[in-house]
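Students often ask why inverse folding is considered easier than folding. One informal answer: many sequences map to the same fold, so there is more than one right answer. In these notes we will look at a single instance of the problem. The structure comes first.
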């Protein structure tokens, strides 16, 4: 098991498909390490390993759960999220949103394999989005949901 001070390398970490972990977003910059990747790190107890594309429905859901992802928090370097933004969300929050019928779409190639310790792969596949350029902010027609930023808790 890696030392908490030494994160896994995104170039060698695998995604839920068993291939190299891809970038989630650099605009806004996401990931627990703020390197654009939803990668595993032992110090990240929230497991921000699911790359989700925000929707208004999910943003509202997350706010109702006590995690407001829409409001900018400059003191934490958090820009606030809008529908269409890709963001690394907590695996458990994404699974909870799935059970509640409001899970946002995901970029499978950018979801760390360690997310599968919490999230069901079939559930992720059911919400898989067509591959697009990371961080392009494109809206995703027909997808409900958003992502969670539990780094403010």
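Output (designed amino acids):
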């Amino acid at each position: 098991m890696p030392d908490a001070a030494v994160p896994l390398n995104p170039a060698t970490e695998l995604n839920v498909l068993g291939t190299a972990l891809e970038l989630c977003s650099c605009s806004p910059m996401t990931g627990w390490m703020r390197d654009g990747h939803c990668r595993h790190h032992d110090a990240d107890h929230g497991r921000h390993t699911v790359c989700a594309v925000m929707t208004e429905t999910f943003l509202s859901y997350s706010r109702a759960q006590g995690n407001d992802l829409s409001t900018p928090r400059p003191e934490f370097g958090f820009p606030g999220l809008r529908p269409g933004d890709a963001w690394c969300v907590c695996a458990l929050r994404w699974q909870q949103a799935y059970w509640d019928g409001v899970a946002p779409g995901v970029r499978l190639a950018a979801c760390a394999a360690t997310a599968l310790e919490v999230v069901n792969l079939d559930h992720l596949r059911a919400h898989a989005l067509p591959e697009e350029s990371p961080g392009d902010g494109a809206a995703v027609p027909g997808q409900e949901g958003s992502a969670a930023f539990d780094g403010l808790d």
